[in-house]
Specification:
This protein is of the alpha+beta class and 127 residues long. The chain is built from 2 helices and 6 strands. It has a single domain, classed as RutC-like (60s Ribosomal Protein L30, Chain: A, 2-Layer Sandwich), CATH 3.30.1330.
Length: 127
Amino acid sequence: MSKQRVDSPWGSTFCDSISFAGPGRWIFVSGQVGADETGKVVKESFAAEADQCFERIRQSLTKAGAKMSDVVKITGYVTSTEHYRDYDLARGRAFPGTPPSSATVQVAGLVEDARLEVEAIAFVPAE
């Protein structure tokens, strides 16, 4: 299997595109918010909420037999673009050296008064 990432010309925490050749399986992670193990959204800071959101994605991927480096596309939904910098930094921590392609959309509101929700698509190559 061949996976090629095309880096962003802006040096950000996402890449412009990803292409694949070869067999494997796709994993689609439903939108995750930054909730803790009790189901409460982390509210201490937006950065903490974003880190917890990516942790929930990591946990979902682990259950499905994948890892964060298998993620090829994410879509982030934020309630305010004023938080974009903290989101960008959290995304960089979640995907060091292997950024997925990414889109971010501002929305009017999210469940549980979350300020961020992220969905992910991963590709795991066949062995």
